[in-house]
Amino acid sequence: MNVPATPARGPLSNFIAIGTSEIFARAAGFAATALLARRLGVDAFGILGLATATVGYLGVALLAGFGVISAREVARNPDGAKGIIADATIVRIILALCAVGAVAAFAFGFVDSPVRRLVLLLTSLSLIPFALDTSWAYRGLGRNHIIGIGLLAAQFLYLAGSFVLVRSSGDLQRVPVIQFVSELVAAGILLSMLFARNIPRPSIARGMELLNQSGYTTLGRLLRAAIVTFDVILLGMIASDRDVGLYSAAYRVCFLVVTIAVATHAVFMPAIIRAAFAGAAAVGPVVSRSLALTSAVVLPIAAGGIVLAAPLLAFLFGSEYAGGARAFQILLGSIALLAIHGAGHNVFVALQRNGMEAAIFAAGAALNIALNLVFIPRYGLVGAAAATLAAEALILVSSAIFLRSCGVRPRAASMVRPLVSAIVMGGLLYPMAGRFHVILLVVAGGLIYAGLLALMDGFPKEFREPVATIHT
């Protein structure tokens, strides 16, 4: 297929396109997670969670920032997209292979448990399909709906493999292999749709230029990843596999919310980058629309999850996972803050202020690590979640202050109606929690929220129209 030179869809239609596939794909991924949590048990699920956090930290740190800068270049030069993608991908593969080697050295040098070592080594293989994943390029082109095809393939293969091949904790080592195969197939699908038979000759030199440009962004992602992984790793070092299992289960739900939030941010990236050509003042209105969509989608999920934390965890993963409810509630609060300040990430990229964003993340990471070292020994899971909440609050406030100093002034009022509707919905659900089945309460909460938002005229009308793009 031919990738269009310019984005063909507006932000709302792009979000609906990717959101529809996200619903089905994440439903399959959630079903796989719930299945694995029940069949593996809390302890084995904790081992898997620790390996995933460790490898995920390397993957995000080494490759995600690189992808952001490459996506920016694709958005700026869509006609040269294929060459940029080929150059970036060859360097991403080299980085992934180096990371796999680093994980192997760490596993054999520092991990005493044979089971933990094997799971960690097998999990590191997922860095290879991560390097081959070109979803960042489709985001740069504004073709987010195509990403859903690969996502659907990966999640349904993961679910099918987990259902057939994993029966008990003795099959733990099969899980990362299933994940590797499913993600490799998905990456192959996206690559084939992008290049077909016409693959440009990649240039390592040009790819290294992109890597050099991503220095601050990579540092920022490294620090950003520390906030969401250091607590899991520290729990694995000083707590039990069971504690890690409870915390990992809660985080799996949170990662779903983060994925939805990122989708609301991604659909505005091309428009924000193009608006930046006209100056910082032109970016503010686009960010306002991004914040409105993010708030309308994420805040009710966070509020409902906080109220229904214990029955939701028990329903998804089994009754033994309800012990992570308090930590889950705090984590959902931190995810709501992350969703809001995450809308500003595209602005840092567009204005090429990645160094300042990295500095803000450094402050958040430092606070998170310090609080984790104090809180986890005393308060366990709840302390880890509280440290994450504090770090996200610091990042939100710091990002808002800096962006305003740059002349980017989005309207905070765009978040008020979704916030009020979410709070009222949570208040109405609270007395019903535990008295009715959690699925009924989730449906009721969705209807209540939608009704309140409609009464307040909180559905942003401007999303019916495409965001105006600004050209140089």
Mean pLDDT: 84
Strand content: under 5%
E-strand count: 0
Helix fraction bin: over 70%
Describe this entry's structure for a reader:
With 472 residues, the chain is an all-alpha fold. The chain folds into 2 domains: 1-213, no CATH class; 221-467, no CATH class. 79% of the residues lie in helices and 0% in strands. The chain contains 19 helices and no strands. Helix 6 (144-165) runs antiparallel to helix 7 (174-195), helix 11 runs antiparallel to helix 12 (280-307) and helix 12 (280-307) packs antiparallel against helix 14 (325-342). The radius of gyration is 21 Å and the shape is globular. The two termini are 28 Å apart.
List the helices and strands and how they pair.
Elements: H1 11-76, H2 81-110, H3 114-124, H4 127-132, H5 135-140, H6 144-165, H7 174-195, H8 204-213, H9 215-238, H10 241-266, H11 269-276, H12 280-307, H13 309-317, H14 325-342, H15 345-350, H16 354-379, H17 381-405, H18 416-429, H19 438-455
Helix pairs in contact: 1-2, 1-3, 1-6, 1-9, 1-10, 2-3, 2-8, 3-7, 6-7, 9-10, 9-16, 9-17, 10-12, 10-14, 11-12, 12-14, 12-18, 14-17, 16-17, 18-19
Supply database-style keywords.
472 residues; mainly alpha; 2 domains; 0% strand; disordered N terminus
Summarize the structure.
By secondary structure, the chain is mainly α.
